[in-house]
Amino acid sequence: MARLLDGGDLVVVCPEGTTCREPYLLRFSPLFAELADEVNPVAVRAAAGMFYGTSTSPSAKCFDSVFFLMNPSPEYGVHFLEPVATAGAGAGSSIEVANRVQRVIAGALGYEATTLTRKAKYLLLAGNEGGVATNRSNNK
């Protein structure tokens, strides 16, 4: 990334993945696959032994990093993976590219790729869509 930035190239970071404690990777949005002819996947694993920074309550999300850092030895693992073509012969649609990148990252982390979206995960676990709650009575 530093080499690209030093050369004046444009670098776009599209965070995708999961916010759960189990080894599953949520379905990726295909939008990142439409930004460039090639993407460079980076797999990041946050390891926690005691406190998990992955709340499902929108009002408690601000404490996620605090809980993660409360661990006696919080750990991040970073894996830089081979580039994946998003355009050209054999690349497929942006949805196919997103699914391929999801499988590559899941494989590097030892996770299972799922078809669950972030919204579906939050509906299953917390009964909401994962958004920030607003007071709609003030919007009259």
UniProtKB/TrEMBL annotation:
This protein's GO CC annotations: membrane
Keyword terms, alphabetized: Membrane
One GO BP annotation of this record: cutin biosynthetic process
Protein's UniProt name: Phospholipid/glycerol acyltransferase domain-containing protein
PANTHER family: ANCIENT UBIQUITOUS PROTEIN, PHOSPHOLIPID_GLYCEROL ACYLTRANSFERASE DOMAIN-CONTAINING PROTEIN
Superkingdom assignment: Eukaryota
GO molecular function annotations of the record: glycerol-3-phosphate 2-O-acyltransferase activity; phosphatase activity
Annotated localization: Membrane
Organism per entry: Oryza barthii
Predominant cellular place of this UniProt entry's protein: membrane
